[in-house]
Amino acid sequence: MLHDKTLAVVVPAHNEATQIERVIRTMPEIVDHIVVVDDASTDDTAAKVALLQGEDARVQLLSHAENSGVGAAISTGYLHCREQGVDVVAVMAGDAQMDPADLPAVAGPVAHGEADYCKGNRLFTGEAYRRIPRVRYFGNALLSLLTKVASGYWHVADSQTGYTAINLKMLRLIDWSRTYKRYGCPNDYLVRLNIYDARVRDVPIRPVYGVGEKSGIRLRKVIPRMLWLLLGLFLTRMFQKYVVRDFHPLVLFYTMSALLLLPGAMFGLWILGWRLFCGPVEATSVLFAVFLLVSGIQFGLFAMFMDMEVNRSLR
Fold first, then answer.
1. Mean pLDDT of 5-22
2. What is the rounded distance in angstroms from the CA atom of residue 196 to the CA atom of residue 11?
3. In sequence order, what are the beta bridge partners of 203?
4. CATH for 7-242?
């Protein structure tokens, strides 16, 4: 237990036979339940977990018949813990890239009642830049910036980390059957949490690499899919939080920004192309393109500022 609250750790695992034993054996004593969700592994992951069940009574094994993605595995674990009435549920990956020593820091604010959801932040110190592969570091930084806009949690960074903890209240409020099933699940969770005004906190954690893990993430495929996902999540939050639940004028500011920026950018590119390949352009046309772009940027910035103010208390 942690601060008199029951604590479970959900471990999503797919083909982690080389790492899963390390994850389970290093699990801290404060953990009451270790829920391993085998996402249809084709190696010995499930067999190794089954053997460890005989050594550690805390270990529980749930299995998917088909590979559904890390988000689906986490949802399965969350639903199981919700049924058991566990107070605090953390998530630690099955590839041993999350330091067990950081678990009290990640789960502590939730157990204390200071936050509804807590997540690790590997970017908090300069250590992350030295440890995380450069391409993944900058990809993470870009997605974290865009997730701030999409989720409304402007104080949160390192959006892609899966080292998190959530309380029973939020487990019961969110419909986990509708959450994103694959790599973008942490971004999806943040948007859904914001719709319910959940308090979210970032805590520094140590990035762990070079322990035998093998990443299946291909940024060239992931980044475009994530950009599309974040756009959909942003629109969902705008509609659910600021139209359905309570109207806020920032929706109109974002709408005006989109209506001005897109035509302004297209018109500006057309003018540039005409000037480069055809000849002179009218000064009034240039001024009109600049007017559209500047006005669109201003509306967008005002909308972001209002969004920050609305969500300032959710820390």
1. 96
2. 25
3. 120
4. 3.90.550.10
